[in-house]
User: What shape does this take?
Amino acid sequence: MNQCDIKLYALSTCSHCRSTKDLLNKCKVNYDCVDIDTLEGDQRKQVIEEVRKLNPKCTLPTLKVGDKIVVGFREEQIKEALGIK
Assistant: This one.
């Protein structure tokens, strides 16, 4: 997958978000990660709206793999979305 096909919305201080990042790194996939808590102002509002469109409850981590959405650290669902068994 291309880097733009995988996007992770996270918090820099969240253990579940960190576990998701660790899994993606372990799987050696390229991904774009946005730590929402490090953003400010309009940029932060814009990213929160992006997350809300994917996950109306706006819980984190929210992972977008192509057209698949995985909410929370769900290792099996993440691997399935990545096409890894």
User: Anything to note?
Assistant: The chain has a mean pLDDT of 94.
